[in-house]
Amino acid sequence: MSQPTATNPAPNYVQVDPNVLGLPVNESDVPRFYTDLKNILIAINHNLQEFMAVTTADLATAGTNQQALDQSVSALESNMNRVMATIPTLAGHTGGASTRAPKLSSPAKFDGSDKNKAVSFRVAVTHYLRTLYPNATADKQVAFIISCLEGKAHDWLEPSLEQDVVQNTPVPWLHDVGQFWVQFNALWNVANKTENFRAKFKALKQTKSVQEYHKDFQMYGQNLGYNDVSMRDFFYDGLTVKIKEMLMAQDFDHAADTVTLSILADKALKIDQRLEQFQAQTKSSGSSSNAGPSGSKSSTSPSAAAPTGTAREKLSVGEKVYTIVDGKARKGTIAAISKNSKGKNVPTIKWNDGSSEETTFNTIKKDSHPIVVASPAPQLAKGSGPGPMDLDSVGKGKKPIICNTCGGKGHYASACPSKPYSGQGAEISEEESENEDL
């Protein structure tokens, strides 16, 4: 019932009690009885009129309120439609793409050739099913797992599948995911995995990047029972000397009470990344310094092509040269320079023993102590015999000069050109490139 207002005053009901109306006892009471009955009926009628007026007013008010409510609902719907139309614009028209579920790759199949991959396979399959098919039945989950097996891992299931599918004799563990993994682990899990990991963990050293070392460290160190301090010390001991030097240079105390394994690993990873960046920058700057103005490699002179500190002298026809063969110097003269099939300059050497050979510039060096080859004795004229001095030398057994260092003839050991090149000097550096300008 609505509250009284100026337009809708409170109803004025008449109090009446029909129970006070008594039946007439004699004829004199009949007029009074009808008078009282009339008054009661008039009061009841008055009260009904008052009630009907209030009810009519309430219905009118309810109708007005309902109309206002309908208008509010219509306005709210219009506002919601405008908001929904604005959302794609605010999101850069990506509303459709954002509602698309991410696509997961199917787990890699397991063939049983490497038991170390069994745990990773189980984790991948379980995560895939739990994410995409959380309500799948046990039979469907087992069927999917079986579809991811191949090779020896699938051959192991053939007898049980034949019994369950072909012979229609149920195999309980083929219809229960937990029991299926029990059977799988019994056959494909690595025996004594913890002890194998413990041995690998104790022998683990950083041989590649810190990231690779950290990955192996976490894999082998799990479930071994070491506390964080021991794991931190093990990790530090396995780092390379270079990383340890950088930690020391930064005044980083790995054994401090506040340093955990995670803090030490993060620090080592950052150092390794910075070293890689520095090496990449150094390599790029070194290659750019060897390039000409247009970015191409310069090939103007032998000294430009040779590494720093190993500049080669320019050799030409007639130069005295030598090479080291079995630790001994072999001497000769450049007789000619020509181009080979690849278009590179190659020298032809006439050796002191009379033989000639085409070789490469990086196998010969300029001879600063050439052997002076004695001129051959003039031939005697026909019919003339030896001179008096020749007769004196006959039979006296003069021995040729032989070097005690290289075994060559015509010089002593003190003047041997191969003396400074004994030992390591007998090896020609692989970094010496051919001189294409010769």
What does the main sheet amount to?
A: 5 strands, antiparallel
Whole-angstrom Rg? 54 Å
User: Helix and strand succession?
Assistant: HHHHHHHHHHHHHEEEEEH
Low-confidence stretches: 293-310, 421-438
- The shape is elongated
What is the overall pLDDT average? Answer: 77
Number of domains: 4
What proportion strand? 5-15%
Overview of this protein structure:
The protein has 438 residues and is of the alpha+beta class. It folds into 4 domains: 18-89; 115-188, no CATH class; 193-285; 314-372 and 399-427, Roll (SH3 type barrels), CATH 2.30.30. It is 45% helix and 7% strand. It has a 5-stranded antiparallel β-sheet with strand order 4-3-2-1-5, with no helix packed on it. α8 (193-202) packs antiparallel against α9 (210-221) and α10 (228-238) runs parallel beside α12. 11% of the residues are buried. Mean pLDDT is 77; it is low at 293-310 and 421-438.
